[in-house]
Amino acid sequence: MNEEDLISKKELLELTGISYGQLYRWKRKNLIPEEWFVRKSSFTGQETFFPRDKILQRIERIKNMKDGLSLDELADMFSPNLGAESMSAVKLIERNIVTIFSLELFEEEMGQKELLSFNDILTVYVLHKLLQGGEITREEGKMLIAVMREHYGDLAAKPCELALIRKMGVPLLFLTESAEQIYFDKDVKWVFRLSLAASIEELKLKLNEMEA
Amino acid sequence: MESKSDLRISGIGKSQGGSYSHVRTDGMAKIKGDTSCISLDSNGTMSIEGALQSESVTVNGTATVEGHVNTNRMVLDGMATLKEQVVCTELLTVNGRLSVGRGLIGEKVEIFGNLKTREDVGCEVFSVFGGFSIDGLLNAGLVDVKLNMPCRVQEIGGDTITVRRAKKYSVIEQFVPALSARLHAHTIEGDEVDLEYTDAEIVRGNNVRIGEGCKIGRVEYKQQLQRDADAQIGSAHQL
């Protein structure tokens, strides 16, 4: 992590206008993940720093949503743990969370299901996002379904990333806990990197919005 | 749900862990394995070689738990050593000594004796009439400390932080400063901070009062700073 990407606690409070009490309360409620608190030594001893973009975005979100939701509900939304919700395929289409196209692809691979678990919904949602963005092909979509089905359970509660690389036209899709420290030779091209935690957050937001 | 049996140990006894409805031990008891129950009541010496999950826990005497502890209410009269993370979702009352090998997460924590943890403590209300030693961050909505023994913590963060002295200066303290009832912290950060008899490097807050007996390296405040004539402050800055 670069020096410039960090923001000190003092600067953060000034910039966002929140108080120490609020910051610590949010930390207690796990609205701000423990790993974002970066301790570094400074002239006063030890200071706490945060990854600038992540924390500013998170605090903006909390400030916007805290009137509608309790802190515990917010914590649930930000946690990378899977939600308990399940939903029927028809409803997902109706609510415009996924498209028929991505759902059909999912059903082709997994067979038709009456009720989709959160994990399934997430898979379809990610699939939908990537297909729509034109980042992956149908074939790669199938790889995605397979990798999510097989491995997502192992990584569920951790902040993980989904990434696709290509070398000479050969795609390779993988799920990783942290892609910060992976280096490939120069022929390898990163096609996309997607934080699953962020996708889960988005999806939970969508599912909740609809209910309200 | 099928009803579960009770576990009772009187005198000297050993048992396997498992799932029970009520566990009661009198005398010397050893439970080998993870235990879950509705209530656990222990008198004498008890040790659990595993994790403990129970709605309520009462300990009289000494208790040792090797694994994680997860409860709603816990009352400790005596000495307890919990070697892993402790979660207590409603109320934790310590009338004796509690030592936690990892961190402590709770709602309301009352210390009338002594608390020692190796990692962070997070709760809504943390009230002390005794002493504590926390090797990490104490993060609580309300921190209310009545100093009675030496207290030590790396960092305190929260909404309202109050530190007061509960007893008068004793003769021993004048000769052995290490035993005096003072709070030692590196950093104290809160919205309302009101301190007495505290040694800290940095105190930050909106409204800060530095009362008698304090030695503070640097104070940063937003709205106002009240300082006692007796307090030593290295430097004060309004932000």
UniProtKB/TrEMBL annotation, chain A:
Point out the gene that encodes the protein. Answer: yhbD
Protein name stated in the entry: DUF4004 family protein
A Pfam family of the record is DUF4004
From TrEMBL, chain B:
Segments carrying the region annotation (Disordered) are: 1-21
Source organism per entry reads Paenibacillus azoreducens
Q: What is this protein called?
A: Polymer-forming cytoskeletal protein
